[in-house]
Amino acid sequence: MSTLFLSRDSPTNSKLTDLDGSTVYVVKTKHKWKDEVTGISRADGEELVSVTWKPFSDEMFTMNCKTAPLADLLQRDNKLGSSNRFFNNAAGQRFQWKILNGHLYCVDETTGLSVAAYYRSGGGIFSKGKSAYIDISEQVTDEQDLFVVTCLMMENINRYRKAIMYSGGGWYLAIKSP
């Protein structure tokens, strides 16, 4: 199992470190006129993906020099009100990110087994909480980049949806959902 810790409780601005404390990934978000652009790169500087978060149109991502709508990478579950998203690896194997009890779990659609999970930081105002972290199963560590990228995107989408719902803007999700 591979465990990566987030330096901040933010899926869009953080460093991900391994158990030894070595930086493995860097996530930075730049704010442009109306958009936010999040870049996820390895510690050596190689950019894995760039995501443009747009408030009133489709989010776009660039990976391997190809740009496409984010919905092409993280396909929606067709169930009404579901936040679950599907994605495929290079071999065509299908995985699903699910939100359960405030945590994200990634399930292999073929076996039904959990292969990755994202745990939010466990702190509050009066407690010294532990930092957020991602667990990735040994079955998929060779595709760790893909699972880290999709996990961070899912957590950002989840937070965005919650912020809108808490502010009374649930109607907005009915017309445009990230």
Topology, pairings included?
Blueprint: E1 2-6, E2 14-17, E3 23-31, E4 36-42, E5 47-53, E6 60-63, E7 66-69, H1 70-73, E8 75-76, E9 85-88, E10 94-100, E11 103-108, E12 114-119, E13 133-136, H2 144-166, H3 170-175
Antiparallel strand pairs: 1-2, 1-13, 2-3, 3-4, 4-5, 5-6, 6-7, 8-9, 9-10, 10-11, 11-12, 12-13
Provide a compact summary of the structure.
This protein has a 13-stranded antiparallel beta sheet. It has helices at 70-73, 144-166, 170-175, and strands spanning 2-6, 14-17, 23-31, 36-42, 47-53, 60-63, 66-69, 75-76, 85-88, 94-100, 103-108, 114-119, 133-136.
What this model shows, in words?
By secondary structure, the protein is an alpha+beta fold. The protein has one domain. Helices cover 19% and strands 39% of the residues. The chain contains 3 helices and 13 strands, in the order E-E-E-E-E-E-E-H-E-E-E-E-E-E-H-H. A 13-stranded antiparallel sheet has the order 7-6-5-4-3-2-1-13-12-11-10-9-8. A hairpin with an 8-residue loop joins strand 8 and strand 9. The longest helix is centred in the C-terminal third of the chain and has 23 residues. The mean pLDDT is 83.
